[in-house]
């Protein structure tokens, strides 16, 4: 009977102590504190790369249009196109990359010799470029 009593008092506790849990949470917090800003940076870089690609595509399209027509002014005769629908209606260009419509495009200063392309992301100006490849990143 004595053996039975000794065995019943021996309980093996399984699990983590409070200190072990606190250390694990502290390590995870440090990892998250490093990872979130890095992730945000990658997202921003991807947005800028998309905007650059779209500007390059539109600039090539406008140069081809000028070579064919002698001017950057589209068939509507307007000196500015304020959104993608107007650009597509006038020139037939659409990037087809922006399914969630976070980028907005505008063309200003359209004349026989020049233009300015502006791309906004979620309402904030991101990039503007002119016909001579002078780009400003905001």
What does this molecule look like?
The protein is an alpha+beta fold and 138 residues long. It has helices at residues 2-9, 18-69, 84-91; strands spanning 103-108, 116-121, 124-130, 135-137. It has one domain (17-137). The mean pLDDT is 82. Helix content is 49%, strand content 16%. The N and C termini lie far apart (83 Å). The protein has a 4-stranded antiparallel sheet, with helices on one face. It is built from 3 helices and 4 strands, in the order αααββββ.
User: Low-confidence spans: pLDDT under 50, at least 5 residues?
Assistant: none
Name the overall outline: rod-shaped
Give a count of the beta strands, DSSP E runs of length 2 or more: 4
- Class by alpha and beta content: alpha+beta
Q: How much is the average pLDDT?
A: 82
Number of helices: 3
Strand order of the largest sheet: 1-2-3-4
Share of helix, binned: 40-55%
Please indicate the percent range of residues in DSSP E strands (runs of 2 or more).
Answer: 15-25%
Short account of what is shown:
The chain is 49% helix and 16% strand. With 138 residues, it is α+β, with helices and mostly antiparallel strands. The protein has a 4-stranded antiparallel beta sheet with strand order 1-2-3-4, covered by helices on one side.
